[in-house]
Predict the 3D structure of the following.
Amino acid sequence: PKWPTSLAGHRATVHPSPAVTQLDWEGEIAVVIGTTAKCVLSENALEYVAGVTILNDLSARNLIRGIETIAVTKAGDGQAPCGPALVTLDEVGDLRDLRYRTMVNGTVKQDGSTSDYIFGIEDAIESITRVITLVPGDILSMGTLPGVGLCRSPQEFLYEGDVVDIEVDGVGTLRTLIGSPTAAPQLGPA
């Protein structure tokens, strides 16, 4: 889950909590729901999608203590920058093969496509709506590609002054700046 205080916009400066000592990037495609969806079949799932955007699923790796802490590690203040725009499905191209890459300070860290996903977007919507009613404006972040800092050797994390750019073909580039953990966070998108 992401709370309203988790969201940040394009070009936002994210000020992680001082408790976060291992902040990691996760470039992700996100779909935004446009029509209330409950018990949707995968073959109809895209009818409920308003469009596609980009989400930087910033993760506090040092706070993971088990599955019950995942929400805390991924939903801190400002830890879900998204944008720069919402692109409609007719403009974005093939969702099953949408190429994207994540760069930290200009160096490519993740590079792949939605064709690399274990579960497709339509399958995810079907699975989620079996239990949860999705409403217009809900954002579904679809997972990340290999190359996150936690899984690198040696491990790499984000620090004050770092810049994360996530480029998605047909959608644009989401830029996130990493600020000081001692500064007050901006709550919600600018």
Observations:
- The mean pLDDT is 92.
- The CA atoms of residues 64 and 102 lie 23 Å apart.
- The first strand starts at residue 7 and ends at 8.
